[in-house]
Structures are given as structure tokens and as C-alpha cells.
């Protein structure tokens, strides 16, 4: 039987601790007792661990042996902020598919009230990513940046190849662009930034901004996808080529 996996909030070389809701769930629902075994992720490493102490607000583990961890997909998903329920679904699925970082950005066509509410919402996005990472037995939790205007994100120096999903692009598919990037990188696994527009799509001045900052427009095919579908489809294409 596979052991449940928990992602610890605090750790040192020999122990790790769950706090808050996670600790409460373990103590009350699962009736954790000292001696119970679990897999615990501490600082990106996975350990076979055993419960050492349980109180309602805290569960402490002794870390026994380190297990193999799988790396995240080296992808930063730059996501235009749009309808929160759809966006949250995309955050959850992107986490399951292995995304490394999610950078929420305020685009020209992000609705005003959502742009204003985004700063308060980011903690919830982090919590959802944490839960999804745990559920899909990841050994790390995707980092979710604080929301910033697209102009601030798009123009900082690139960390890797930059691709922007654009439904009006016809000649370059995501797959072709990735093939080229992989060929050019040879054996090094390149890191990627992948931008997805809001419900209304990118505005013309945003397309120009991407263009001026070295982003390449890529297509996922002739049909118009919702942003959350585009996120899942794009990450699946990337995973199929990189993993
Ligand atoms: N404004 C568009 C829909 C935007 S879809 C319309 O209604 O006509 C939201 C985002 O999903 C787009 O900005 C783009 O980043 C991505 N997307 C959707 N379909 C796509 C496709 N076929 N190829 C590439 N990206 C796509």
C-alpha cells in the first residue's frame, strides 16, 4: 500500500512538522498516533517518516530515510488573471501536471474587480497548489508569485525560453517551437516561460510587448480553447516532450 504523503511546513535535519489544518486533519480524522508511518516532504526532499508526537495543532515526525523525488516540469506558467473559479481549476490541474511556478499577471482584459481582488486571493491559490501537490504525490509545491501587471513580468530578463500562447498564431505550433528549443539546448533541460491570456485574449499592445521582449507566439491548433483548457493542453504537450 502506498503511504500518504504530507508536505511539512517546518523541518530540520531529523524532524518535520505539520501545523494548522493539515495537523488537525491528521490528528482528528486519521487519528494519527506516534509510530504511524507516512511519507513526508521537507524542503523539496521526500522522506519515509514516523509520527513522533501529536497535538491538535501540530504533528511532529522523525525523518527516517530519504526517498527518490521527481523534479517539477521546468515551466513557469504566466497566467493572465480571469474568472477566479476557472483560474483556480487551472492552478490545480497545472500543479497535478507538474508546473514549477505560476506567475499570475494582470492583463489589459483582466476584469477590473478581479485585478483588485487578486492580491487577497493569492493565499488561497497557494493553499490550492499545496493541496493539489500533496494529492498528486509531488515532492514540491509550485511557487505562486504575487500578482503583477503583465508589463512588469513580460519585460524582466528571461530565465529561459519564452512562449506565449496565441489563438491567432497559425504557423508555429507549441510542439514545433519546443522541438527547436530542445535541439538548440542539446542535453540541458531548458526552462520555459509559457504565457496564457485571459478570456478575452491578449490585447494588441500586449502582443507587441511580448514581441519586443523575445516571446515567441505559439499555437495549440485551429480551435479556440478556454484559458484553463489551453493550460492543461500546453503542459501535456511539454510533459510529453520533456519527461
Ligand atoms: N479572445 C479569444 C479567446 C481567448 S482564449 C476569443 O474569444 O476569440 C484565452 C487564451 O487561451 C488565449 O489568450 C491564449 O493564450 C489561449 N488559447 C486559446 N486557444 C488557443 C489556441 N488554439 N492556440 C494557442 N493559444 C490558445
Task: Describe this protein's structure.
- This protein has 243 residues and is of the alpha/beta class.
- It has 2 domains: 63 residues, Beta Barrel (Ribosomal Protein L25, Chain P); 168 residues, 3-Layer(aba) Sandwich (Alpha/beta knot).
- Helices cover 37% and strands 27% of the residues.
- The chain is built from 7 helices and 13 strands.
- Strands 7, 8, 9, 10, 11, 12 and 13 form a 7-stranded parallel β-sheet that branches.
- Helix 5 links the parallel strand 11 and strand 12.
- Helix 2 runs parallel beside helix 7.
- The longest helix has 24 residues.
- 34% of the residues are buried.
- S-adenosyl-L-homocysteine binds next to helix 7.
Describe, in short, the structure shown:
The chain is 37% helix and 27% strand. By secondary structure, the protein is an alpha/beta fold.
Amino acid at each position: 500500500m502506498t503511504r500518504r504523503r504530507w508536505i511539512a511546513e517546518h523541518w530540520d535535519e531529523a524532524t518535520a512538522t505539520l501545523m494548522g489544518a493539515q495537523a488537525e486533519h491528521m490528528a482528528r480524522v486519521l487519528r494519527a498516533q506516534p509510530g504511524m508511518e507516512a511519507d513526508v516532504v521537507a524542503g523539496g526532499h521526500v522522506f519515509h517518516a514516523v509520527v513522533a508526537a501529536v497535538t491538535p495543532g501540530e504533528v511532529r515526525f522523525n525523518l527516517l530515510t530519504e526517498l527518490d523525488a521527481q523534479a517539477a516540469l521546468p515551466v513557469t506558467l504566466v497566467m493572465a488573471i480571469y474568472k477566479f473559479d476557472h483560474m483556480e481549476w487551472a492552478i490545480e490541474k497545472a500543479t497535478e501536471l507538474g508546473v514549477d511556478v505560476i506567475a499570475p499577471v494582470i492583463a489589459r482584459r483582466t476584469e477590473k474587480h478581479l485585478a483588485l481582488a487578486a492580491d487577497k486571493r493569492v493565499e488561497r491559490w497557494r493553499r490550492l497548489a499545496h493541496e493539489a501537490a500533496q494529492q498528486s504525490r509531488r515532492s514540491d509545491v509550485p511557487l505562486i508569485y504575487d500578482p503583477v501587471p503583465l508589463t512588469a513580468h513580460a519585460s524582466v530578463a528571461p530565465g529561459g525560453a519564452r512562449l506565449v500562447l496565441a489563438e491567432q498564431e497559425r504557423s508555429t505550433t507549441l510542439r514545433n517551437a519546443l522541438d527547436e528549443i530542445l535541439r538548440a539546448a542539446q542535453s540541458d533541460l531548458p526552462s520555459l516561460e509559457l504565457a496564457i491570456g485571459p478570456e478575452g485574449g491578449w490585447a494588441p499592445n500586449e502582443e507587441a510587448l511580448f514581441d519586443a521582449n523575445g516571446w515567441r507566439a505559439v499555437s495549440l491548433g485551429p480551435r479556440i480553447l478556454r484559458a484553463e483548457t489551453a493550460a492543461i493542453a500546453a503542459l501535456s504537450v511539454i510533459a510529453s516532450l520533456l519527461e
